[in-house]
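Thread: quick sanity check before group meeting

JM: Hey all, I'm pulling together slides for Thursday and realized we never actually wrote out the predicted structure for the chain we discussed last week. Dropping the sequence here so it's in one place. If anyone has concerns about the input, flag it before I start.
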Amino acid sequence: MRSFLFSGRNQNTARRVALQGRKERKVFMKKTLLIVAMLLLVATPVMASTTVKVLVNPADQFTASDGNKVQPVSIAYVTDVNVRAFALDINVRDVNGAPNFQRIYNFKTGESNAASPGYGIFPSRFREFIVVTDPNWGNPNYNPTVAWAEPGSANTGIGFPKMIVEMGALYAGDGNKPAWSGTLFKFDVNAWGAVGTFHIDVAADTLRGGVVSNDGNQIVPPILVLEGNDACFPPTTCVLPDVVSQPEAVATAAITNAGFTLGNRTTACSDVPGIIAGDIISTNPAAGVYTCGIPVDYVVSTGPCCVIVPNVVGQLCSAAPGMITGVGLVVGNVTTAYSTTVAAGYVISQNPPNPNCVPLGSAVDYVCSLGIAPPSQIWYPRVDHDLKPTVVWTPVTGATTYKLERNLAGGAWAEVFAGTNTGNYVWRLDTVASGINYRYRVRASNALGDGTDYRTGTWDCNSYLETCYDNNTADGNYAQWTNTLVGRPRCWCFPRQCHGDADGKSSGVGAGKIWVTTVDLDILSIGYLVSNPAVGTGVEVLWASTNNVPAACADFRRKSHGVGTTQRVGTTDLDELSYYYLQPDNGARPTPSNCVPGNRTPPWW
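JM (edit): ok, ran it. Output follows.
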């Protein structure tokens, strides 16, 4: 740097110039030129301190007319000696762009005096713009930047990211010297579209003397404390509009018109109401305020979504819901049905079937198998008098086996039969206990397994041993003959058997029913005066003719006859039948009272 170096002789000369005033202006200006020329002399180093500060206030940042961000920067100083001149190298750096100096301003020009102290002499520009005889300090081209013609100053200054500044003070008398602190100048940094943080670096230009004290000595080392030398150019923001559900052409135009660029374009199906094929489903980012120029990705609808219906037929019913919901569908109506081809607990059918393609969220109905159906009906006696109940059920098409269960007095169900049962599907149980209520249920099975459902009887069967004759009879042999092991026919427990009704059947309806008919007479004739007439097996069957009825059912009086008392049907029984023969309940004969304890109901009633 050129040093403002003044010897004692030079200082006296300056004083004389000042005293001569305007009369000797021409001489004064010549002396001034001489002083400026002396700045080229090399200064002697001296120990002192000077701090140069870079002051950046983000609040001062503004947007220029061209749309670029501009940050004003101040260069200030603080020193502990009288400084005659400054020569500074100033650089602006930014990794995200190339900001540069736009202008330099707020610097003093001309001589330093009490009214306006400061550094207003710019050696590099002085000869070019200042006329000694008539100095024009306000020339806009007169500024502290070093001209390109100076050594090492090419490509510096306004419009570049580097600037070299030279400033000196010219004054006469201590009262006119610059202050020990103040602002040297300001400059603007233009971002030129860059965003992020930029840095200001300031250093003493040693080629031009750096910082020179008033006595002409160079301050070594010149202390430069850079304060606030970072500034940030915030991104310029734009408002991204909401273009969801708009046609693609309209949406993309709105995005670019808002100051953004188009990013990646993808497609997808959409079931959102109001969005059809060709409309925008979404953008990334979504509508909002963002940095201008960033890319905006967008998704275009191809139309409603389509989901392949999974095949749940033949799958476990418990697995079907997960298979349906797993592809974005919902479980619809779940019903059950019997099947001879699909095992219980598996899906028989579905609607819609696989592999139909349906909208996302559609319902899928399916039918779950209960397995083979149970028998449609089951019968058994309400009251069983011989502890051998007969259970009858209807056959099931496709069934190979049946499983029969009973519960005891309302307790838990227990299996009492499992296997093939053909013919009339009649099951006989000989292990019931007297005086206990039983209930029965049955289900069918096939090669696929048991059916789920049972057919359950609607009444309880009360089992107890019943003799159905007068225990007070004097005929002891008769009592022996009618023991439970040999000859106790079940028909003796029919309500009217003791009054001539051998078959338990009637003709007619209502009060006109006739219970003792020619059928009963035929049964009596078969066993009349026959020794040890047949009493049957004790199995209650659906009697279709008199041949199916044991002749002992005509033993109305329950007494023995003839030699050896082996004849059970005789004249007393014929008398009983004759009395009620063809008599209605409301006829000439009184309605017969029930035989005691003849309360067994035949299965055909």
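AS: nice. The longest strand covers residues 69-79. The first helix runs from residue 8 to 20.
JM: adding both to the slides.
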